[in-house]
Backbone:
């Protein structure tokens, strides 16, 4: 997979990150190295290895379906830069 | 050119668990904003989600009830997109190994049975609610619904008309209600459908380019959206334009759909396995336990109503289309033979009154045995059919036993000969022109006179006896 400046800009846009030209070129350098390492791993024959879903060999970690009191609203909103009428307030989103 | 419409559905059903999918917050509808929320469901860093076991069970129940293959091994994945109703900036969902796949349900349209394929059913979490404030150019977020468990049921593009879509949704809704995994209240958003639609010239094998329509929260809106979008696509093709593969929002008030271009690039979801949640293993024993706990499904119940109770296909479909209605019907006919008459009262007057009063079937205001008591009063000849309708309305409005209504209000059929002779004589005296007409051979005059006797007795006179006495008196 080829990583270009466009890839970086696309991913930054999806993540709502505003990057400077300098940051973009740094990330391009890092990302290229990461992908090159992945390409190296691809040289291994993994045709007989099952895809890893999780690194830990543990399955079925569940909780019982019981409802408990939620968190105080004031505490939830305490770190919000803006709130109004018990809601988190963010810049208007357009669809 | 003649076109054919091709439709597949993505149905989201909120599961009726007590708590959310990864935390213990209640799933109860409503509540003050952000009072059903905690650090886990508002996506605080460092929290650890733990999967609600019931969510897996409910997904498996749905899969088994829709003839799906149940994955022995499945996992959850992060679907990354940035939107403020999803505070983690990803939705925990399932990507390549859904819990259920390759199922089907059979629908009936105009007496024909058609099989609709189910591609997959997976579990995921619901998002919060955004309230837009145009004046302040701000959006307010309530996370009460965020983290409520959902199943997404994806169908194959097997439907060819709005009618088939509604039949599919009704069957699916009935199944979800029967197996008790979703309350299916569309107005509260617990059942929502996205419509994938394309058109193609009849005879063409390849599918046309499809659009996805969101924001459909009633059967009526779905029908209108399908009709509107079909027309738009055909007009585009006939006009030489291309149909673009895109997400469109249906505006039911304006009756048009419009493109949601802003969502296009966001479709790059970069799924990856969720590292905070462990894989799900459903062994044969667990699967079997769930299978054994399934109730009789609507299709089976319908066939039983036809074979066991001798009901027509139509009646059986209507009654079993809702579990509550079917349970009510069975309760009413438990110790009663005249099943067809009970079915008629339920499908006729009961459904009509519920609709008039905008009440849901869950809210039937009287016990089921009252219907069989009412039918018994008619069958024994204690009351007439006309009176029975009035008794039924009183029974509905006041939740009173029909036997008591009839007794207290003196509504029994009047069969006493002597009393009726007196009434008939009185009617004949005060309607001499009609008597003349009858004697001249006008049959209609007879009917009028019967009507007058019924009026005089407030509809209680036994029509057979009235007919006989009237004839005797007129022939004198
Ligand atoms: Zn929570």
Residues:
């Amino acid at each position: 997979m080829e990583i270009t400046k466009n890839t970086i800009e696309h991913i930054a846009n999806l993540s709502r990150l505003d990057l400077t030209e300098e940051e973009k070129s740094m990330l391009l350098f890092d990302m290229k190295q990461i992908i090159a390492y992945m390409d190296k791993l691809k040289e291994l024959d993994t045709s007989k290895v099952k895809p890893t879903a999780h690194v830990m060999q543990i399955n079925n970690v569940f909780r019982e379906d019981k409802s408990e009191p939620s968190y105080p609203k004031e505490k939830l909103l305490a770190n919000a830069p803006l709130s109004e009428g018990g809601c988190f307030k963010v810049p208007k989103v357009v669809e | 050119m003649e076109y054919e419409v091709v439709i597949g559905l993505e149905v989201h059903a909120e599961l009726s668990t007590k708590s959310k999918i990864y935390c213990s917050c209640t799933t109860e509808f409503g509540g003050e904003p952000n009072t059903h929320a905690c650090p886990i469901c508002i996506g605080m860093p460092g929290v650890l989600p733990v999967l609600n076991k019931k969510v897996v069970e409910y997904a498996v129940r749905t899969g088994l009830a829709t003839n799906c293959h149940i994955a022995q091994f499945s996992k959850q994945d992060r679907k990354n997109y940035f939107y403020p109703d999803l505070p983690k900036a990803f939705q925990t969902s399932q990507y390549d190994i859904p819990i259920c796949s390759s199922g089907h349900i059979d629908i009936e349209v105009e007496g024909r049975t058609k099989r609709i394929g189910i591609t997959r059913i997976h579990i995921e979490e619901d998002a919060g609610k955004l309230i837009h404030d145009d004046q302040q150019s701000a959006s307010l977020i309530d996370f009460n619904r965020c983290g409520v468990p959902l199943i997404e049921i994806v169908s194959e593009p097997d439907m060819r008309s709005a009618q088939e879509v509604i039949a599919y949704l009704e069957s699916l809704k009935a199944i979800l209600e029967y197996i008790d995994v979703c309350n299916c209240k569309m107005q509260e958003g617990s059942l929502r459908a996205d419509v994938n639609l394309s058109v193609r010239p009849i005879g063409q094998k390849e599918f046309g380019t499809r659009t996805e329509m969101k924001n459909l929260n009633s059967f009526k809106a779905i029908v209108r959206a399908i009709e509107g979008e079909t027309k738009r696509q055909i007009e585009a093709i006939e006009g030489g334009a291309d149909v673009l593969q895109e997400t469109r929002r249906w505006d039911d008030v304006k009756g048009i759909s419009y493109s949601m271009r802003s969502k296009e690039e966001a479709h790059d979801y970069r799924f990856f396995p969720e590292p905070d949640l462990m894989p799900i293993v459903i062994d044969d024993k667990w699967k079997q336990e769930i299978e054994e706990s399934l109730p009789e499904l609507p299709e089976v119940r319908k066939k039983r109503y036809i074979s066991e109770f001798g009901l027509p296909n139509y009646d059986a479909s209507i009654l079993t289309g809702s579990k509550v209605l079917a349970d009510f019907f069975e309760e009413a006919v438990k110790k009663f033979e005249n099943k067809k008459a009970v079915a008629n009262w339920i499908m006729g007057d009961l459904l009509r009154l519920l609709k008039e009063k905008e009440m849901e079937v869950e809210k039937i205001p009287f016990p089921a045995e009252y219907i069989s008591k009412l039918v018994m009063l008619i069958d024994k000849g204690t009351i007439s059919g006309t009176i029975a309708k009035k008794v039924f309305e009183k029974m509905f409005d006041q939740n009173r036993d029909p036997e008591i209504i009839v007794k207290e209000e003196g509504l029994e059929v009047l069969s006493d000969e002597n009393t009726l002779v007196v009434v008939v004589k009185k009617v004949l005296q005060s309607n001499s022109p009609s008597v003349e007409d009858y004697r001249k051979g006008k049959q209609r005059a007879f009917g009028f006179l019967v009507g007058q006797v019924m009026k005089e007795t407030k509809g209680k006179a036994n029509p057979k006896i009235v007919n006989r006495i009237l004839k005797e008196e007129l022939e004198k």
Notes: DSSP finds three helices and three strands in chain A. The first strand of chain A starts at residue 62 and ends at 63.
